[in-house]
Write a structure and sequence with these properties.
Chain A has helices at about 1-10, 50-60, 90-95, 115-125, 130-145, 160-175, 190-205, 220-225, 240-245, 250-260, and strands spanning about 15-25, 25-35, 40-45, 65-70, 75, 80, 85, 100-105, 180, 210-215, 225-230, 235-240. Chain A has about 260 residues and is of the alpha/beta class. Chain A folds into 2 domains: about 1-100 and about 175-235, Rossmann fold; about 100-175, no CATH class. In chain A, a hairpin with a 6-residue loop joins strand 6 (about 80) and strand 7. The radius of gyration of chain A is 19 Å and the shape is globular. With about 220 residues, chain B is mostly helical. Chain B is about 80% helix and about 0% strand. The chains are: A alpha/beta (about 260), B mainly alpha (about 220).
Chain lengths: ~260, ~220
Amino acid sequence: MIIMEQIAASRPMVQISDVSKAFNGISVLDGLNLEIPIGQKVALLGPSGSGKTTILRLLMTLETIDAGQVRIEGVPMYEGAPDAPCLLPEGQIRAVRSRIGMVFQHFGLFPHLNVLNNIALPQILNGQAGKTEAENRAHELLQMVGLGEKAYLLPDQLSGGQKQRVAIARALALQPDILLFDEPTSALDPQRVSDVLDLLNMICRKTGTTMLLVTHEMEFARQFADRILFFDHGQIVEDGAPDVVFTNPKDNRTRAFLGLPVIDV
Amino acid sequence: MTELVLSDLLRSVLRGLEITVILTISGSILAFVCAFVFGLGRVSRWRFIRVFSVCYIELFRGTSVFVQVFWLYYALPAFGLLLSPLLAGILGLGLNVGAYGAEVVRSAVQATGRDQYEACCALNFTRYQTFRYIILPQAFPRMLPVFGNNMVELMKASSIVSLISLSDITFQAQQFRIRTGQTFLPFAVTLIVYFILYLGILFFIRSVTRLANPQKVKV
């Protein structure tokens, strides 16, 4: 019994095994392996087109993989042979998907619903809360992200930074175990970046959510993450704690990207 | 011009107006239903439904509405299906305009950004929930102005039913001309009545548009 619990506890939150993905014959991920323990904050860095965002999108089931397997706390997302995986049928995949939330680069707020309903409706439709309860929770979350007064505005009446915070509140409302952020700071003024950082850190403290974040901002990644993954051509070329990766990366591609002198072998 | 002639004209116009209004309203309702059924069928996950919807849309857009009404009224009886002129008129107009409406529904649904579908997936909505709560409320207001145009087209096209012996306004005007030899008066009145119907449809569509997007009217 104790052994079983230990096994359960040692299961990674996200386990990506031998995953390959190509778009129109161009390989984006090639035999990728990655494990992320529960509660870890991971920043994915690397040049454009290196496959960072694809990882988030396939975890969110916005893309499907060509080969391999993805497991969320041990639960597989695909069935069939590893070389021809097939996403689980709708009913089963929804159970897995409900554990994952995503904040999009351009937010993806619903323009016809006010801020409050953007946050309340997903809770209602997922059967997590009735109308009143969902609205109360939405108000609480809006307070938490500092937008208590904006509940009845439409998304288009908000600034980029405010939309971002609504998108975060909306994702949090469903209480996911894993939160994915696709370039959360790219659409924001530089001054707002530290606000997002503070908010994410607060969420981590409160909920212990596992987070994967794709970004181009080195400083943001450094302050946010427990672990940095540096991608190039669909492969992880650097994997370590921020201090190590930023000060003394071992791979020359990372060194070049960070503007550090290249090491001769 | 005697009062008798005038009251005769008025009676004829009112009788014709009734038929034209019945045709316009019933035809529009049928067209609306067809537009949704086949417009959504056009983007269905099932190939069979997509193919069937495309066949309907292209068949009815690609042939003349006159011929379609003639078909329903004169040709179907050859297959043992006898329709009343009114039913043939409603079906012909409704199915024809519905085919155009279906393309409006399809394009409005497809015009909804990919980001909306992706956000719905990320929030774990079912396909039905995505459509019902997110896509349709955004797509429907986009359809309304074109639906309004289609309804006006249907109202104007309804004059062809005089060719299958339905006594709509145009038919009544013709009859009046034959009876009295007057030409200016009946057709002037007919024009005005059609224009008033047009204004009515315009007003109706504006009201529905206002209901469908309250936020945009909050000036």
